[in-house]
C-alpha cells in the first residue's frame, strides 16, 4: 500500500513516527502551516517556522525515505491577532518556493470579520501564484462554517477544482460534494471521523476528489490512521486500486496542480543540513 498523507504536522511528531509511517507505506506528506498552540507575537516567529517547513523538515523526512512538501499561510486562529497580520506581506516570497504546493491552512476558526478578510486575501494570493488552496473548516458550528467557506471560495474566483475543504464529516460532505471542490477528511483516534465512518462515506460518495489524512499534530492524533483507513477499505470490499486512488493518486492529482510535487526516488537529503547531528546515530 503506498500512502500520501495530504495533511500532517510533522514538526510536532517524532522520528519514531517517521519510522513507523515509512514502514506502513507512507512515502509522501504535505505539511500545512498551522497554529502551534502557543500564540506567536511577531513576524519572525512565523518566518522561522516557514523556513523550517521548506528546509529542515523536508531534510528530516528524507532520512526516512519520506518526501515532504508544505503549504504556507496565516492560519485562521492567528488571523485574529493584529501582531500576526504582517505575515500576509511575506507570504508571496514563500509561495514562490519549490517545496510549497498550496496556500494553507486558510479558512475559519471562529468566523470573525478578521478571519473573513484574511481568508479572502489568501485565496487571492492562491490565484495570483497559481496554487491550490487548503481550507480548514471549523470544528465548532461546522455546517455554517462550511457554507460560509464555500461562499468566500466562490467569490474569490479560484477554480473549485483547486480547492480542498478539509475536516469534513457526514453532515458537511453533502454541502461540498457537488461544488467541484475536493473533499478532505481527517481521521482521528477517538473523536470525529474514524476509519469505519470514512469507509461508509466512500461507499456513499465514491472515491473521486476524496482525500484522507491523519492531520496528526501536537494533540491526540495518530499518523498511521491513513493506513488503518486503507485496511478498513479492503475489509469492506474495496479493491487495491480503490485504496491506491484514495491514498495516493488523489493527493498526487490535487497537489500536482502546483506543478511542484517532487516524488522521484532520489535521496531527499539536502546538503544544507549535512553537518547536523541528525546524521549521526547509525540510521
Ligand atoms: Zn492541520
UniProtKB/TrEMBL annotation:
Is Hydrolase there in the keyword field?
yes
Tell me which domain of life the UniProt entry assigns to the organism this sequence originates from: Bacteria
Q: Which UniProt keywords apply?
A: Hydrolase, Metal-binding
Q: Name one Pfam family in it.
A: TatD_DNase
Task: Give GO terms: molecular function aspect only.
Answer: hydrolase activity, acting on ester bonds; metal ion binding
Please give the family membership noted in the entry: Belongs to the metallo-dependent hydrolases superfamily.
Q: Which organism is it from?
A: Micromonospora craterilacus
Q: Does the keyword field hold Lyase?
A: no
The record's section on InterPro entries has: Metal_Hydrolase, TatD-like, UCP005295
Tell me what this protein is called: Hydrolase TatD
